[in-house]
């Protein structure tokens, strides 16, 4: 089973929706995550058309609807995308769903203002994989992208590493420092304008606002 396979199931999609709505802690975290993503999107400047990839079950569609954006909701999993339809009535023009891989987006160069890529790249162990996804986002965007990553300097990440050492397991969540992530984005043709942490030095999740370099 490769990363992404488990999401290709209606049962898992329903579980994913429930998981983020279950309990006060999870709901608070999603509320905070949406605020962090909104702050990063604002840092890009005015954007109207956005590709949300991977959109999953549409956790960020409420934010994009709030900004009155025109959205393309894309994911490798049809099942996850379908679960996201529950948010479509928030839009005047409902999102256009597209099944696609973030490594090869079936869209022309500079066909949207911005892209949102949440909770994907921390699943890739290799810098080359993260750079390949960001290069593809840079290609299809006119302005830039918001990409989330896991911060290696966070308390939660250090705890995760200790747990892994105790259990002797290799996990599938990979963290990098802010500096490393900004360098990878630069290599993909994107410059970091700001970083927005869920809870600085505690939480792993950080959203980076990345704008296209002038030479791109
Ligand atoms: C953890 S979920 C995140 C979804 C959403 N962005 C969120 O934050 O709730 C990961 C999603 O990535 C999708 N996915 C995995 N590999 C992908 C790829 N190469 N291209 C596009 N989507 C992918 C999965 O189908 C799944 O819906």
Main attributes?
216 residues, alpha/beta, Rossmann fold, eight-stranded mixed beta sheet, 7 helices, 38% helix, globular, binds S-adenosylmethionine
Walkthrough of the structure:
The chain is of the alpha/beta class. The protein has a single domain, classed as 3-Layer(aba) Sandwich (Rossmann fold), CATH 3.40.50.150. Helices cover 38% and strands 23% of the residues. It contains 7 helices and 8 strands, in the order ααβαβαββαβαβαββ. It has helices at 10-21, 23-43, 61-66, 78-83, 127-140, 155-167, 178-187; strands spanning 49-52, 70-75, 96-99, 112-117, 141-151, 175-176, 190-197, 205-212. Strands 1, 2, 3, 4, 5, 6, 7 and 8 form an 8-stranded mixed beta sheet that branches. A hairpin with a 7-residue loop joins β7 (190-197) and β8. The protein is globular, with a radius of gyration of 16 Å. The model has no long low-confidence stretch (mean pLDDT 94). S-adenosylmethionine binds next to loops. The site of S-adenosylmethionine has 17 residues, from loops.
